[in-house]
Design brief:
The complex is a heterodimer of chains A (89) and B (452). With 89 residues, chain A is an alpha+beta fold. Chain A has a single domain, classed as ACT domain (Alpha-Beta Plaits, 2-Layer Sandwich). Chain A contains 3 helices and 4 strands. Chain A is globular. Chain B is of the alpha/beta class and 452 residues long. Chain B has 2 domains: 170 residues, Anaerobic Ribonucleotide-triphosphate Reductase Large Chain, CATH 3.20.70; 226 residues, Alpha-Beta Barrel (Anaerobic Ribonucleotide-triphosphate Reductase Large Chain), CATH 3.20.70.20. Chain B has 15 helices and 13 strands. In chain B, helix 6 links the parallel strand 3 and strand 4. The chains are: A alpha+beta (89), B alpha/beta (452). At the A-B interface, helix 2, strand 4 and helix 3 of A face helix 1, helix 3 and helix 9 of B.
Chain lengths: 89, 452
């Protein structure tokens, strides 16, 4: 069971570190990651295994949102099923 | 593995194009509440609804968060009160309306539907008593939605009921005159009413439904519009294909949410309603889709053709994406709830007659239309009869939700707030149809009702 974490915002030092630290802390195991910086704009897609998440996914979403607010980023944490439903038959 | 393009597309649809689940509606049968008798009915209704739907909002919010898709409304629909509460007198019906309102408040939902009667063929004494209470019930409550089904392809149009309901609409407008006659925004007059519709104000839990059921209504006019805009000047077959593809994706999200909510609540999944439901937000408009297809202004010539294409493609795309579809399933054209419709009505391009033509090719009907406050009950009844005729003859659902805004004239505007939006008062022909309406009786079912 995976979650897709999309992080966007103005580039700054240590974005990946901050997001992955929170993931580790809550038991989400990062299985794939891709990122790019376009001019000053940072975009990262992360797929994390959440089968051993220590809290409910909805609580993890709150934690990620708080992290986003603290760092002026936009973080969307979504269960992968929404992407599978939309893009796979 | 999911690819980046897919992730971006989904995230964009939600963040920029207003993709959302419009409503998760739990249907609850009230038939067994009749055993509580005349005095205990309202309390039994309150107890049952608050017990069955106690987790609805909580589960809705959880799913919303986990999947990152907004679920705008969580709602409840119940068995038509005129049927479940047939033993009640007028006071009992009003007490039940208040109990429904209280139950909605306890659950934290904004609307509850089912203060309804089905009188397409005839009215029982209970139906008459019930319909007489609708205006007061809508004035006394905030969250209760009411509907009356006055015609069907199988039975024809009950013109006695049409006459009564025209007066009901007028009286509701008067009793809620302090708030822009808002009561009328919560009163739908149906033909061929679906029993599994999740959308308010017309939702009720059909008598043939089970104990409880979960129906989901999707949305996404903004997503369809931006998909069409990306096509440039492609031909109409390409436009139809693109709408189908988009509708498929939107509906798949609806199906996912419906199954997940059904599992978590332990309530059987009913249907996904494949509707394009606009909101007053900019970029979330059905009118703007028609304009993106190429109609200069919604309401101008070409509008009906573009809408027919849109409505059909939405259904074709959606039907494969869900295991069960139902409800109203089509594009909605509520004037006050759609920024593009409001604009077109205000500049005179969109008139009631054009809206009536549009309802022949889409879901649902003359929806959220404000007309001058001095419009007579007979004119409203005749408008309802016209719309019912379109529904009966074409074997489709039609509805009339018209607001004769008390004290307002053409050119004024009525504000309802929130999803109900604001309606420009539109001109309607005021010639007197009372001779037709006063004849009463039944317009017989059309020949196409004889399918056996």
């Amino acid at each position: 069971m995976n979650a897709v974490i999309t992080v966007t915002g103005k580039d700054s030092k240590g974005i990946i570190a901050k997001v992955s630290t929170v993931c580790t802390e809550y038991g989400a195991n990062i299985v794939d990651i891709t990122q790019s910086v376009l001019r000053d704009y940072f975009v990262m897609f992360m797929i994390a295994d959440i089968s051993e998440l220590k809290v409910k996914l909805s609580e993890f979403v709150d934690v990620m949102n708080a992290l986003a607010d603290e760092n002026s980023l936009k973080i969307q944490t979504m269960h992968e099923d929404i992407f599978n439903a939309m893009h796979r038959i | 593995m999911i690819n980046v393009g897919d992730i971006l597309e989904t995230v964009n649809m939600i963040s920029n194009d207003h993709l959302d689940i419009r409503t998760v509606t739990m249907g609850i049968s009230l038939l067994d509440c009749a055993s509580a008798g005349k005095d205990g009915f309202a309390d039994a209704v309150y107890e049952k609804i608050t017990a069955k739907a106690k987790d609805l909002v909580k589960v809705g919010e959880e799913i919303e968060k986990e999947y990152g898709i907004p679920i705008i409304n969580k709602r409840v629909s119940v068995t038509p009160v005129a049927i479940a509460g047939a033993m009640l007198d007028e006071e009992g019906f009003l007490k039940t309306a208040k109990a429904l309102d209280r139950a909605a408040e306890t659950l934290g939902i904004n609307f509850i539907g089912g203060y309804s009667a089905l009188v397409q063929k005839g009215m029982s004494d209970a139906d008459r008593r019930f319909i007489a209470t609708i205006p007061e019930a809508l004035a006394l409550t905030e969250r209760v939605c009411s509907s009356v089904n006055i015609g069907s392809t199988k039975s024809g149009i009950n013109m006695d009921a049409v006459r009564t309901v025209g007066e009901t609409v007028k009286r509701t407008a008067y009793l809620t005159r302090e708030n822009g006659s808002i009561g009328c925004a919560k009163l739908v007059v149906f033909t061929n009413a679906p029993e599994d519709n999740p959308f308010m104000a017309g939702a009720f839990h059909g008598v043939s439904e089970g104990e409880t059921v979960l129906n989901v209504g999707v949305s996404g006019p903004g997503v369809v519009k931006s998909a069409i805009e990306k096509l440039g000047s492609a031909d109409l077959e390409a436009v139809a294909e693109e709408i189908k593809r988009t509708a498929f994706k939107i509906t798949r999200v609806g199906q996912l949410v419906a199954l997940e909510a059904s599992r978590r609540l332990g309530v059987p999944f009913g249907i996904v309603d494949l509707s394009l439901a606009p909101t007053p937000a900019v970029g979330d408009s059905v009118a703007e889709i028609l304009e993106a297809i190429g109609v200069g202004r919604c309401g101008g010539c070409g509008t009906t053709a573009a809408l027919a294409l849109l409505n059909d493609a939405v259904k074709k795309g959606g039907v494969m994406a869900s295991s069960k579809v139902g409800g109203l399933s089509g594009a909605f054209i509520p004037v006050s709830e759609d920024a593009g419709m409001i604009r077109a009505a205000e500049d005179g391009t969109l008139c009631i007659e054009k809206l009536e033509a549009m309802t022949a090719v889409c879901s649902v009907g003359l929806d959220m239309i404000a007309v001058p406050g001095d419009t007579t009950a007979a004119v409203i009844s005749a408008l309802i009869a016209d719309e019912a005729a379109i529904g009966v003859v074409n074997s489709k659902t039609t509805a009339v939700r018209v607001i004769p805004a008390y004290g307002k004239a053409v050119g004024d505007r009525v504000d309802f707030g929130g999803l109900l939006g604001s309606a420009p008062v539109m001109s309607i022909k005021q010639t007197d149809p009372s001779a037709l309406i006063n004849r009463g009786g039944l317009i017989p079912a059309p020949i196409q009702s004889l399918k056996n």
